[in-house]
Amino acid sequence: PAILVYNFASAIIRVSGDSRSPFIYILISGVANVFLNVILCFVMEEKVAAVAIATLVSNMVGATLAVIHLARIKEGPCRVNIKKLQFSWREMGNVILLGFPAAFTSALYSISNVQIQGAINSFGSSATAGNSASAQVESFIGTIVNAIATSAMVFVGQSVGADKRDRVKQSIGWCLVMAVAVALV
User: Fold this and answer.
1) Residue 159 pLDDT more than 90?
2) Rounded Cα gap, residues 146 and 140, in angstroms
């Protein structure tokens, strides 16, 4: 939940034109995580629990800083009034509707990679080494295609938020063309 809150809050902050603050908040969260890992691992006998607690607390720090930032905005559409916050099933449905295809695709990709890697490992160390080399190339291309896909999600989200549904198909179309072109090259 803390990561979810941070991601939503930082996205709202970035939409308002401020990309520096979310970076600072995640930086503070990361430093807190490292600091707490060191301290808690010295103090606690259960190292796994110590790392888990440090991670949870640092995620909560980042989320809290981002929400406080939104609460301090005086005016405009990005201002969050904490007293008026409430859960909306309708908005949750929209988030799931827009996010499910990306999550499903990611899950299928991971499952297929595990199956493929298991089959390749059965051919011996040369096949495994060759697969590792090709995986580096695939990772590079995949990063570019993933960046284009993320851009498509942002463009679609902004278009839906601005109630300009005609831009949705156009954004998806151009991003699809770019992703296919990169993959083919």
Assistant:
1) no
2) 10
